[in-house]
Design brief:
The complex is a heterodimer of chains A (137) and B (259). With 137 residues, chain A is α+β, with helices and mostly antiparallel strands. Chain A is 16% helix and 37% strand. In chain A, 50% of the residues are buried. Chain B is mostly beta strands and 259 residues long. Chain B has one domain. Classes of the chains: A alpha+beta (137), B mainly beta (259).
Chain lengths: 137, 259
């Protein structure tokens, strides 16, 4: 219970901080908000770097073929203020990611929500708007 | 304990960003970085403005926003049109987002802002604006009565001199290069750009920044934009080195105007 409360307070703190603008470039020019994607797989790499933190997820299809997706997060400073740390995602974690696909068709997406290995769903500081509009929740 | 949880939950919902939601359908992505987006979030602290021992308004602190991010037109008075020259409108319309200097980790210039906090530091002779993000840089404003030099080399932040008019800090800047964009959509300018910014701390937690943009190269007349910066009490600047790993600009395929 305490952990849950703590996370909620982090959520509240993140909300207090959150401007919608998270990136140093236009979201719409790189990602297509009309092409949502949900990816379930294993974290194979984490880059805790600027201007965007990134992580890579190996996704297996029905036949066992593995595709590696490159997923963009906000910058580490924004993520820190949202309660993330560089150990929030670790290689080997099983995660589910909801995001928007890159317009150029590459295996890239802007992560909006990440379901972590422990079941928590966390917003990813997406440049596409990580904070839902107040009416949505 | 249950009450505490409910309180925390209510707080998160009210502020509009419940970062953990167990069973809910994710909301549709909100629109990206609009210029007005700096005004989202909780109310800024209220109360009288702080003053220095000499009575001068104290602008120092960590602020967020205060200028265009997505589209400079968001700062115009209601109903006003941007007086951009047709030939520059064409140049703007052809711009691709991947070429936005900010996306390439170059400075915002003036009056553009970024989504990251920034700090004002006042001394008797200078005012400094320290930018956390994009890029981890600063502006220096000379408050010692000097004039603009006549032989300026064009630069990203130009040459800024400032003075006080009552409780308003006025910053006059010239000597800009023509490389930066005013916003994500690519509003242009030329080296003839001259800005006059007026910083007025309207309450403890808010600061109005009104900027007169005068660029006879790209606009038919001067125009004014107005944005509000909000104080981030208790916040400190963090490191943000944009160039560290900016290897994905090639994937930004869309035109700037479609932001």
């Amino acid at each position: 219970m305490r952990a849950r409360l703590a996370w909620m307070l982090i959520a509240a703190a993140a909300a207090v901080w959150a401007p919608a603008a998270r990136a140093h470039h236009s979201f719409a020019a790189e990602y297509d908000a009309n092409k949502p994607v949900t990816l379930k797989g294993t974290v194979s790499k984490v880059e805790w770097t600027n201007p965007h933190a990134r992580f890579y997820v190996d996704v297996k299809d029905d036949r066992g073929a593995v595709t590696t997706w490159n997923l963009e997060l906000a910058s580490p400073n924004v993520l820190r203020r949202n309660g993330w740390t560089r150990t929030s995602l670790n290689v080997g974690d099983e995660v589910t990611v909801e995001g928007a696909m890159a317009k150029d068709g590459s295996k890239m997406a802007n992560a909006r929500v990440v379901k972590l290995a422990d079941g928590r769903r966390v917003f990813a500081g997406s440049s596409g708007g990580d904070a839902p509009p107040p009416a949505a929740n | 304990m249950k009450r505490l949880v409910l309180l925390a939950l209510a707080f998160a919902v009210v502020t509009g960003a419940l970062a953990v939601s167990a069973q809910q359908t994710p909301p549709a992505p909100t629109s990206p970085a609009g210029a007005g987006s700096q005004n989202r979030g909780p109310a800024a602290p209220t109360g009288p403005v702080t003053r220095l021992p000499n009575g001068q308004v104290d602008l120092s602190g960590v602020w967020q926003g205060g200028g265009p991010v997505g589209d400079i037109r968001m700062g115009l008075a209601k109903g006003e049109m941007l007086p951009i020259k047709p030939e520059w409108q064409k140049i703007m319309d052809a711009r691709m987002s991947k070429d936005d200097p900010e996306a390439n980790c170059l400075p915002t210039g003036v009056p553009r802002r970024d989504p990251y906090p920034w700090r004002i530091v006042q001394t008797q002779t200078h005012t400094f604006m320290l930018f956390e993000g994009n890029i981890h840089s600063y502006r220096q404003i000379f408050m010692d009565g000097r004039k603009h030099p006549s032989d300026l080399d064009p630069t990203w932040y130009g040459h800024s001199i400032g003075w006080w008019e009552g409780d308003t800090m006025v910053v006059d800047s010239v000597g800009f290069n023509d490389k930066f964009w005013f916003d994500f959509v690519g509003h242009p300018h030329t080296e003839q750009l001259h800005t006059i910014e007026r910083y007025t701390r309207t309450t403890l937690g808010t600061m109005m920044i009104e900027t007169t943009v005068d660029d006879p190269g790209a606009y038919t007349r001067p125009f004014k934009i107005s944005f509000t910066a909000r104080l981030r009490p208790g916040e400190e600047l963090m490191e943000y080195i944009c160039n560290e790993n900016n290897g994905y600009v090639k994937h930004i395929t869309g035109p700037a105007k479609d932001f």
